[in-house]
Specification:
With 327 residues, the protein is mostly helical. The protein is built from eleven helices and no strands.
């Protein structure tokens, strides 16, 4: 849901041509996909961000994108691609004086070479990272680097050194309070004591590890539950909004239907009334025509009757007076 929300400003920044803001949004999207373990999509967005900051020639942005790509490829165990990105990022961070950024990149490189079982090279990177972390006085990152060195000592089977370093990390983490790192630290300490045959200490640290793991699991369950509840609430609100929209739409449809119905009735009424008027006028015309015909024939009859009367009267008198059949 959050990813969908971010896409809108991303499109807007692209439309207005703000490449710096667009690059930052792609970096943020990459981080979100990385947290969700969708590493391919994370890499895609990091590469888009890198392309944009390279166009702007913005060195801090370029080094950040390179570092992000390197760490994401590291998480995907694609070390062949991760190392060149991290090495290029390290050059830029050294050039710009970003000691904390350089220490983080060196720590990532140390983790890669620990996994590749090139322990001397890994220790060298972690040692450089430790020096820089001390200079910038960043307690959490310093603990992360020390954990990398402790793992390196464990892989070298230098368990005493590993235990010494882990105990230092645990003491430091009491103020930093980073639960995931604390869990990993207790597990490493338990394994180191186990390798040395001190099983009672290994057992106690395993218990600490399990308890903290359960705590982290419960925290994640609570987070997931809260997320699901928030999602459910959002869906409920969404359904309510949709229902209201449907009700409004239904009301509008009913109103429109009523308007159309009334309009049709008025139209039909108009047509009927118009037909009535036409018929009424036609009947009036026919009546007028009948009257004119009657008057015409009455006048014609009168015109014939008058001269016929003038002729018939004298003829009748003549006939009555005559004694001759011939006349």
């Amino acid at each position: 849901m959050l990813l969908n929300f971010i896409w809108k400003p991303c499109r807007l920044t692209k439309e207005i041509g703000d490449k710096n803001a667009e690059a930052r949004i792609h970096n943020y999207l990459g981080e979100l996909y990385k947290v969700q373990k969708q590493l391919d999509k994370a890499i895609e967005h990091y590469e888009m961000a890198l392309s944009l900051v390279k166009e702007l020639n913005f060195t801090p942005g370029i080094s950040a994108c390179l570092s992000n790509l390197g760490s994401t490829y590291t998480e995907a165990s694609n070390y062949a691609k991760a190392i060149p990105y991290l090495e290029e990022a390290l050059k830029l961070k050294n050039a710009t004086g970003d000691k904390l950024g350089a220490s983080r990149v060196l720590s990532n490189l140390g983790n890669i070479f620990n996994d590749k079982q090139q322990y001397d090279l890994a220790e060298n990177y972690f040692s450089q990272a430790f020096i820089l972390a001390k200079e910038v006085d960043h307690p959490l990152h310093l603990s992360v680097v020390e954990f990398g060195l402790a793992q390196n000592a464990f892989y070298r089977q230098d368990f005493e050194r590993c235990i010494e370093m882990v105990n230092n990390i645990i003491a430091a983490l009491a103020s930093v309070q980073d639960l995931p790192l604390t869990i990993k630290t207790y597990k490493l300490l338990s394994n180191a004591y186990g390798e040395m045959g001190e099983f009672d200490k290994a057992y106690l640290n395993a218990i600490n590890h399990n308890q903290l793991s359960d705590s982290l699991y419960n925290e994640k369950i609570l987070t997931v539950t809260n997320d699901l509840e928030a999602k459910y609430q959002n869906e409920q609100k969404g359904r309510e909004i949709q229902l209201q929209a449907l009700q409004i739409l239904q009301g509008e449809n009913e109103r429109n239907f009523l308007i159309v119905f009334v309009a049709v009735i008025l139209l039909l009424t108009g047509l009927v009334y118009n037909q009535y008027r036409i018929k009424y006028k036609a009947n009036a015309k026919l009546k007028e025509l009948d009257r004119l015909k009657s008057d015409f024939f009455a006048n014609i009859s009168h015109e014939f009757r008058t001269p016929l009367s003038l002729i018939m009267v004298p003829l009748k008198e003549k006939i009555d007076q005559s004694t001759s059949e011939k006349e």
